[in-house]
Amino acid sequence: MKGHLQVERKGDVVMSTMTNKNLRRALWIGAAALAASWAVQPAGATIGSDSSGAILIFPKVIVDTSGVLFGRPTDTEIQITNTSNSIIAARCYWVNATGHCSNNPTTACTPETAATRCGTGGRCVEGWTETDFRFRLTKRQPIAFNAADGLPVFPLTGGVQGPGGQTNADSSIPPVPEDPFIGELKCVQVNPEDFQPTIGFNPANNAAGDLAGQATIVSASTQPNNVDARKYSAVTLKSTTVNDRDDTLVLGGPGAEYDGCPNVWILNHFFDDASIPSHFSGGNAGFAQIATTDITVVPCSEDFSLQENNLGGATLQFLIFNEFEQRFSSSTRFTCFREVQLADIDTRPGTGDNAFSIFNVGVQGTLSGQTRIRSVVGAERANGVIVVAERFLRSEGGINSSAENVHFTGTRDKSDFIVLSPNF
Amino acid sequence: MRVKKRFWGLGTLGASALGVLVWASTGAGQEIRSTTTEISGSVVVYPKVVWDGTRDTIIQLSNTGNNLAYVHCFYVNGAPVNPNQPPGPNNPPQWTVTDFELVLTRQQPTMWAASAGRRVDHTSPFGTYGAGFDPGLIPPVPQGFTGELKCVQVDETGQPWPGNRLKGEATMQRNDGDVATYNAIALPANTQVLPGTDLELNLTDTNPGGEYAACPDTTILNHFADGATQIALSSANSLGPVGLCAGNNCPVNTFLTVVPCSQDFESGRQTTVTLQFLTWDEFEARLSGSFSVNCWLTAQLSQLSNAFTPSALGGSTTRHTRLRPVPGQGGVLAIAEELRRTSFSNVTAWAAYNLYTQGNRYDGATTGENDDPLPAPNAVDVISVPVE
Predict the structure, then answer these.
(1) Interchain CB distance below 8 Å, B224 and A144
(2) d(CA B145, CA B161)
(3) Nearest Cβ partner of B222 from A73, A79, A404?
(4) Which domain holds residue A323?
(5) In which region does residue B127 sit, left (phi positive, over 0), alpha (psi from -120 to 50) or beta (all else)?
(6) Residue A364 falls within a domain, yes or no?
(7) Which of A323, A385, B20, B108 is 20 to 30 A distant from A372 in Cα terms?
(8) How many CB atoms neighbour CB B248 within 10 A?
(9) Which among B331, B319, B333 has a CA at the least distance from the CA of B365?
(10) What is the β-pairing status of strands B381-384 and B263-264?
(11) Chain A partners of B318 at a C-beta cutoff of 8 Å?
């Protein structure tokens, strides 16, 4: 073998016919340098929606029991679980981002319905108010409630105890503050004794946190009879196991108490108005639906103490790739909460000019795309965001939907901050 | 373990080194050592793909990197041998495997319907099915297919490659328009180890020299008791007035789909895993049980055990279930679906979701949980991939 490059590749003896020693040496030096650079990269901790954490984020919760904003009566079922063997507690926040008409503050609206809901001279002004609450969960306990009702009485209260004597004392979840409602639910794991932030209690997941959850947005109508459900997992931020227990939570960056928010979100989607065929037989599609995709974006930084959104918001940069490997870009800005159809990112709200959007199939020419979403880093904060997506498919039978957690990559050097309301 | 010799030409080595350099320069060196549903990996698993005449599945697969991604995919048909009889020991899954190869260009997304596959047809009209760079010939699955799709990132010679650039989604469409989407489960690989044809799932924080992320030790399923009344649809303050839950007759059923992590595509050997479960309700009442997965399983929870029904725990509605292979056995990957029924038998909706996980089978890392079975250390799952 002298004069031949030989490397071991698990079970294989791999040989090269290359005999140029200098080139070989250069390649291996380069490979060694790359390997060394990998070796110093941080391992492990990321946010996620597939493992429990110490901060639980449901980016999109909607209630519209009369169907005036979202077309059909709609509510959101929330499931929250304590995955640990210990009693835990959480301080939670309904973040109400419902818009209201500038000329009629009692009328709820969305940018898409402003023309019909607010009329001439009115515009839809987005809101940002929070309602906080707290609860205890006993060992391994799951709870479920719908946002329109909340959970005023917990299962283990009123003299009812779990097998180990634990209870849900001092626990109550109010309904969302108004109907229609669109906004976010955020929960922070706290110590069940003093309700101050804490690391997780479960050594099996390295004390990363013990909260897990899902949200299911359910719509129903009778003309015609139709029920629709879309479900996503709550995004969790894991504890770094460093926590000073004050009400300012540091997400990522120097002195991080929790995972930082991702650098880039990666969304696979159908281009808006694409006709998605299925049920093929003999080469012909037996069924097709028209697709659109909505994303919901919430900021990682939020100030619940001052009751205003003085920390959130960022410019979002989009890179869009179609199946021809062609690349497009766009951007938009949001402050506290943004729920938007892809085609409305670069066009006006509503369907009028969606055909001109770079998210439209008529512009892109392929059915599917990959979009990378990056919030621009601020001078003082990471300006990270959390994203979930929903896909809507229309056919003669009506509109059906599904929700999905969005992929991501990378972390940021700077921190985001969540400032909790005072713990009375 | 098969050992063979092959020549790695200068061009291949140079291209690989360049690819590594490009990969590193993208700044995506965040090393993940667990299975994930939100970060790209070198193996992506779609546990449930169905084309039964009523439901079809739209597959999306993307290359998240800036260089070419070569992909070797395997359809695994888990339909029972006799489709007219319920699956069971006397009617096992077919476990037939069909494979195909794809090439995805920089950041390229692609999609196909399971019932159609995708042809290599450069004349597909603008904006229609098949438009775009065709990644390769993708065969259709036969009607009646219910099983799994697994895709492995490889190099240009077909050898597994730890590129960590694949992500995917599956959308199941019913012929009345109902849809349910889940994320493919990704197994990130150790970029410093070139795997052979036996992919060892042993990469963990305690074994950073492993190859691919170890499968989870515990799968955490949050669900409603199987057959419990839907909360929103039955509430007078919520969707109750719509009238789709007459007499509180609007149950929600949960279906679980499970695939073993170990698969031998080279020899065609089937894998069986026995899962033990613990399930708690909102009153902290607990039940346990077990069931087996032979190659591939999809089942309504109450078909797996009566413990998942509301009456098993006094009529409670919500559950926290933890699933774990018995000691010594390898791991599993799973997704769940909810079927939301109404008082009208033909009005239902599916919703799919990914599950939480904890620990890994290689470390048996859920020590310290006093009501879990003892950990089973060092169970190494292996995916054996045929390479010509």
Answers:
(1) yes
(2) 29
(3) A79
(4) 7-44+260-419
(5) left
(6) yes
(7) B20
(8) 12
(9) B331
(10) parallel
(11) 79, 142-144
Q: Within the 38-57 window of chain B, which residues sit less than 8 Å (CB to CB) from chain A?
A: 38-40, 53, 56
Domain boundary pick from A209, A225, A248: A248
* Residue A23 host element (H or E): helix A21-39
Give me the pLDDT at residue B378, please: 66
- pTM for the model stands at 0.91
Domain that holds residue B314: 218-384
Residues B222 and B210 in one domain: no
- Among A221, A339, A351, A370, which residue's Cα sits nearest to residue A290? A351
Backbone angles phi, psi at B17, to 5 degrees: -60, -40
Integer-rounded Cα Rg, in Å, for chain A is 25
pLDDT in tens, A118-169: 999 899 999 999 999 999 999 999 999 999 999 999 999 999 999 999 999 9
- Say which amino acid occupies A116: T
The reported pLDDT for the residue numbered A14 is: 32
pLDDT band at B89 (very low <50, low <70, confident <90, very high): confident
Element (H, E) at A26: helix A21-39
Are residues A230 and A276 located together in one domain of the fold?
Answer: no
Our CA angle for A146, A150, A156, nearest 5°, is 105
pLDDT in tens, B344-379: 999 999 999 999 999 899 887 454 454 554 555 568
Asked if B82 and B110 count as a contact pair (C-beta separation under 8 A), the reply is: no
* Residue partners of B238: CB distance under 8 A and separation at least 6: A63, A65, A75, A146, A148, A149, B231, B232
ipTM: 0.91
Q: Which residues of chain A are within 8 Å of residue B131 when distances are taken between CB atoms? A: 323, 365-367
Among A347, A316, A340, smallest CA distance to A110 is for: A340
B321 touches chain A (CB under 8 A): no
Nearest beta carbon to residue A50 from set B1, B340, B357:
B357
Final residue of a structural domain among B165, B192, B214? B214
Token pair listed for B15: 């291209």
- Alpha helices, H only, chain B: 10-25, 231-234, 301-304
Write down the residue that tokens 């880093």 correspond to. A377
Helix (H, G, I), strand (E, B) or coil at B356: strand
Which residues 60-89 in chain B show a CB within 8 A of chain A?
60, 62, 64
Cβ contact, residue pair A204, B368, below 8 Å: yes
Say whether B64 and A409 touch across the interface (CB within 8 A): yes
Summary mean pLDDT of chain B: 88
